[in-house]
Write a structure and sequence with these properties.
This protein folds into two domains: 198 residues, Rossmann fold (3-Layer(aba) Sandwich), CATH 3.40.50.1170; 118 residues, Rossmann fold (3-Layer(aba) Sandwich). It is 28% helix and 22% strand. A hairpin with a 3-residue loop joins strand 12 and strand 13.
Length: 339
């Protein structure tokens, strides 16, 4: 049997950090050598490593998503799977972005990281990487996933939930794909099917998107000014519960009108991680449907934001943008009839 070929792509994060002279964590340069000595002997596979970035993930921008996607595309035919080491704070955003940019993916792209640096004696980094390698080599995944604490989640369904515990991620509206215990328990009915079409990459996006989290007393006028001044091209609203909005707020209605007049699409996700948006459920939310707002259904805020950026990058017609937002492109949402 031919050995599998796996590429580990380093982007930084706590995984590779070390303490500086002030006792503060900063990106280190020891991880590649450490992994060569400790990880490679564990697997009957050809393992290569490349350091693309060495950043705290709080410094990530959409341009970094693009570079990771391009690097995977450049090496796509050379490897059977990819492991991306990434900081935890923005990993869910990057995972969502890669799921949309890597179209017709026919191989596993496994993202992982750590809560403690690799050289810390209590670190979770080593085991997370071992698990990620196991999944990249021995699973039938054809999608971008996020692995943490022996659990594999669909990348665009995952959220960080804990800054302290090793069990740092969860997937509020889609169950785990794989659990790693004594064995590897795969829930293959939850996997995305192997694509029939050829792999391709599409990294077009537009960054001018803003998230508006609702709270009692919020002043919407600033956002209306941004829309009228062309400072924002797409909006994601974090509404209450199932998409409930304060429809008697004159500032909000002004925002809706300004967005409609300027062809600025608005997607509505929920502040409640579990559950889904239904803009037809409450009478007070009726204006949202009147103004053509888009239900994010059960997408995470991270996936909704990134998908809006991608939609704006690929389409100029607002109807095409709305159609893309409503479509289930990479398993990021519950299917619904888009007409």
């Amino acid at each position: 049997m031919t050995q599998k070929k796996i590429l580990i792509i380093h982007t930084g994060g706590t995984f590779v950090m070390e303490s500086n002279e002030k006792g503060l964590l900063t990106p280190g340069n020891y991880a590649l050598e450490y992994i060569s000595e400790r990880i490679k002997p564990l697997f009957d596979a050809e393992i290569a490593q490349e350091q693309l970035f060495n950043l705290d993930s709080s410094l990530f921008r959409p341009s970094h998503w693009v570079k990771i996607a391009e690097h995977i595309a450049k090496n796509y035919d050379l490897y059977d799977g990819f492991v991306v080491i990434h900081g935890t704070d923005t990993m869910a955003y990057t995972a969502s972005a890669l799921s949309f940019m890597l179209k017709n993916l026919g191989k596993p792209v496994v993202m992982t990281g750590a809560q403690l640096p690799l050289i810390d004696r209590r670190s979770d980094a080593f085991m997370n990487l071992v698990d990620a390698m196991e999944v990249a080599i021995n699973s039938d995944l054809n999608e971008v996933v996020l692995l943490f604490n022996h659990t594999v989640f669909r990348g665009n369904r995952a959220k960080k939930k804990d800054a302290w515990d090793f069990d740092a991620f969860y997937s509020p509206n889609y169950n785990a794909l794989i659990k790693l215990g004594i064995g590897m328990e795969s829930k293959k009915h939850r996997f995305l099917p192997k694509p029939a079409e050829k792999f391709e990459i599409d990294t077009r996006l537009m960054e001018q998107v803003v998230i508006i989290p609702f709270f009692p007393g919020i002043d919407f006028s600033t956002f209306s000014v941004m829309v009228r001044n062309k400072k924002v091209r797409g909006i994601v609203i974090e509404a209450y519960g199932s998409g409930n909005i304060p429809s008697d707020n004159p500032g909000l209605e002004e925002l809706f009108k300004d967005a409609a007049e300027n062809c600025v699409p608005i997607a509505v996700c929920s502040q409640s991680p579990i559950g889904k948006v239904n803009l037809r459920l409450y009478d007070v939310a009726s204006k949202a449907e009147f103004y053509g707002l888009i239900s994010a259904v059960d997408m995470t805020r991270e996936a909704t934001l990134v998908k809006m950026m991608v939609a704006l990058g690929r389409y100029s017609d607002i109807n095409e943008i709305k159609k893309f937002m409503m479509k289930n492109c990479a398993g990021e949402k519950e299917n619904e009839n888009v007409g």
